[in-house]
Design a protein that fits this description.
2 copies of one chain form a homodimer. The first copy, chain A, is α/β, with parallel strands linked by helices. Chain A has 3 domains: 51 residues, Orthogonal Bundle (434 Repressor (Amino-terminal Domain)); 131 residues, Response regulator (Rossmann fold); 129 residues, Rossmann fold, CATH 3.40.50.2300. In chain A, 45% of the residues lie in helices and 16% in strands. In chain A, helix 5 packs parallel to helix 13. Chain A is elongated, with a radius of gyration of 26 Å. Chains A and B meet through helix 4, helix 5, strand 2, helix 6 and helix 11 of A and helix 4, helix 5, strand 2, helix 6 and helix 11 of B. Strand 2 of chain A pairs antiparallel with strand 2 of chain B. The first copy, chain A, binds a DNA duplex (30 and 30 nucleotides) through helix 2 and helix 4.
Chain lengths: 329, 329
DNA sequence: CCGGACGCTGAAAGCGCTTTTTTCAAGCAT
DNA sequence: ATGCTTGAAAAAAGCGCTTTCAGCGTCCGG
């Protein structure tokens, strides 16, 4: 059932049906009524493909994320989807797992389908801007990168000041009287680097200069947190505070500390990052840095929408995280 | 840059370019080489829209979920996306939040865009099959419903036997010596009903007939779990085992029990459901029912793909969950 | 040496819309 | 009564592909 069928049944031309459907141009009330009656009793669904063919935008947004199962990305993607949906867009999603090839494959696919805009969620995607295979696709539609910088003509960023976030955690621990702090780096991203930098700087600010030696590397998981603590305790170094790069890792840190007979926060205070549900499930509930994924997502959507509609001026923005104090520190 | 530009530069017709691009029909090596050279030095991207217009499938799958932020749905959606991506499809996502209007709006949009198939993730979507507004769209493309039944021509289900899952939890608790069991129902879905039914049946099987009176209603959250326990303890009824409908609720149950001075699992054993990361973060780690979202997703993808390619025969399937024993029971 | 088959390529139609252009008729002023 | 204007609706073009069909040259067998 297409527009020709409707036109034939209503005894008008397809352009008239189109005018009725899109509510534009002049149509007499009588003609409009006749078309609408036919429309009502048919189950006609206009083809967005054909509409796209005729030059109208398809109103779809491509969202690239590392892994939607990570709560932080889920929250970001959720808000992006909801907000674009509210604005009449549909969102298409890809979990690249950080695989460059996967990102390129997907970017090609959405370019072929004429996506109206692209949102990259995760600092890892900043690489794509300088990737000769990926960059051409990123020029075909406006791009917004959540949590990372990208240098391309029609691309902007919404950044979170993770350096500041880590510094907030350090300051809080110090205010509690902690002096022997460590920082757990559980992933190799720009964002993790920023946290470490914030940690080191905050220590320097307090007159402690060996911050760089107080960074523990491990994996982003409960087991990762546990291992980091085991290694730390085995080293015999004194510790009374640990800043973690992720709540899930922090929960492993807490678990290992308790297993070693240490009390949290009395003996060792621990902070998480992302203020996820894990922070509330963990016992004791984690003090965590809220980096506001919903706010970031909202800003991404607003920015991308104005980019699509070319209602500038545009600019990248940076937001500040906040510390949420609970029981672990 | 379109196929006409390529054809002109290569000095051939567009049909020849099309043949080269799609690797079909006969083209001499010389002609093919000439076209490919032009192709290589251009940044031509074929239009999937135009290809769709010409009758080819666009290879997009629509996925409806309640809320991607719920880990169980995130795991399901993730696997669906990855598997379809691997098969050359793109997935579009909508979080309906259980809103009928939102589902309908989205179904209309994807129908207009000629989605090749639809996956409904969550038992709540079984309503759509009998919804006069939604059903027409569900007839336009094959549909697979994860975790619920739907009665429509081209629709099939992948079910999890949640009755059995709850029964597994009951049996485990009884084997530990628990006798005064309760079940926490934290949401009003078909799936939650099945769990309660499994709970009641399993009790009956053990000679306990008042299972129906042992169901506690609350919200699906940490607070929900806490409230259920507070109400239960206030009632003065004896309890030594609690079966929960979700890990997150179970974590609240554990927290409230401990706050009341009860030991888990020694005084009261607790089981969760979904075997999510929450079960591992919780202290003590939750014994939980694994309802295998990845397996369900894989089966959905396989089923939907064969539906799309009409390589039958098709049939709905039911899978059995398994109990994962940890420290809480 | 000619007819038919076959391989390669181009021409053209068609997919379902939007939009521009054209047609037509009615209404009005001169 | 003629010419103009105006508004409604039809006609037609165009979007970028795929695919069918037709044309044309070549090769082979009779």
């Amino acid at each position: 059932m297409n527009i020709y069928d409707i036109a034939r049944e209503a005894g008008v031309s397809i352009s008239t049906v189109s005018r009725v459907l899109n509510n534009k141009g002049n149509v007499t009330a009588a003609t409009r009524a006749r078309v609408e009656r036919v429309l009502a009793r048919s189950n006609y669904t206009p083809s967005a493909i054909a509409r796209g063919m005729a030059g109208k935008p398809l109103r779809t947004i491509a969202v690239l994320t590392v892994d939607i199962r990570v709560p932080h990305y889920a929250r970001t993607a959720y808000t992006i989807e909801r907000e674009f949906s509210r604005r009449g867009y549909e969102v298409s999603l890809c979990n690249t797992g950080g695989e460059r090839a996967e990102a390129i494959r997907y970017l090609r696919a959405v370019t072929e389908k004429h996506a109206d805009g692209i949102v990259l969620v995760g600092s890892i995607f900043n690489q794509l801007g300088s990737d000769p295979q990926a960059a051409p696709f990123l020029r075909e539609a406006p791009v917004v990168l959540a949590n990372g910088r990208i240098d391309l003509p029609n691309s902007y960023s919404v950044l979170v000041d993770d350096r500041h976030g880590a510094a907030l955690a350090v300051e809080h621990l110090m205010a509690r009287g902690c002096r022997d702090l460590f920082c757990v780096r559980d992933v190799a991203t720009e964002s993790a680097e920023a946290k470490c930098e914030g940690f080191v700087r905050a220590l320097e600010h307090a007159g402690i200069s060996d911050g760089q030696d107080r960074i523990l590397d491990t994996g982003q998981s409960i087991a990762g947190g546990e291992e980091a603590v085991k290694a730390l305790l085995a080293s015999g170094r004194r510790v009374d505070g640990i800043v973690c790069g992720e709540d899930i890792t922090a929960s492993g840190v807490v678990r290992a500390l308790r297993a070693a007979g240490l009390r949290v926060p009395q003996d060792v205070a621990v902070t998480g990052y992302n203020d996820s549900e894990y922070a509330r499930v963990c016992d004791p509930a984690l003090t965590s840095v809220d980096n506001k994924p919903e706010l970031v997502a909202m800003l991404c959507v607003q920015l991308l929408e104005s980019l699509i509609e070319k209602t500038g001026p545009f600019s990248s923005v940076t937001i500040q995280p906040e510390l949420v104090v609970r029981d672990s520190a």
